[in-house]
Amino acid sequence: MSTTSATTNAAEQNGPITSPTGQPKVGIIMGSQSDWATMSAAAQLLADFDIAFECEVVSAHRTPDRLFDYAKNAKAHGLQVIIAGAGGAAHLPGMCASQTPLPVFGVPVKSSMLSGWDSLLSIVQMPKGVAVGTLAIGAAGAYNAALLAIQVLALHDESIATQLDTLRTTQTDTILASPTPGIINH
Fold this sequence. Notes:
By secondary structure, this protein is of the alpha/beta class. Helices cover 39% and strands 12% of the residues. It is built from six helices and five strands. It has a five-stranded parallel sheet with strand order 2-1-3-4-5. The chain starts with 25 loop residues before the first strand and ends in a 9-residue tail after the last helix. 39% of the residues are buried.
């Protein structure tokens, strides 16, 4: 596994999303380069929390040996959580989960044919005994997958737990500052 600097099209982000230094705790995998437009939301939140991560394209259908190697060795390489994004048939999260004891959070990537419903159903309908936490279709799902990964890491890291509490307080304060629809108070 390689620790990579995750970059995206400048039109989608304001520059590269770079993993903080140190041993990656979260692996972000996706079935193709085009999935980055969705999965970058996970990388950005992890970077905002200063949590080291790695990103790789690992296709369940085109590179199954690479997927199995990645999943089987993820824990030994220091990862604690895997976020797997996939579109279409979306077998990546489930196949990854079948090969690792780590928690795997699946993100359905919106597809052109069925708007992500095919991805969602492929990920959420795992057989008994192979668990994948399934999130919403698209960037909200990628963001929430990173948020769940952060919550898992916060169980054993007080500094991450404190940052998580701050995020939740900020979200609450934002709503309370502008509770009237159509009126935004700054």
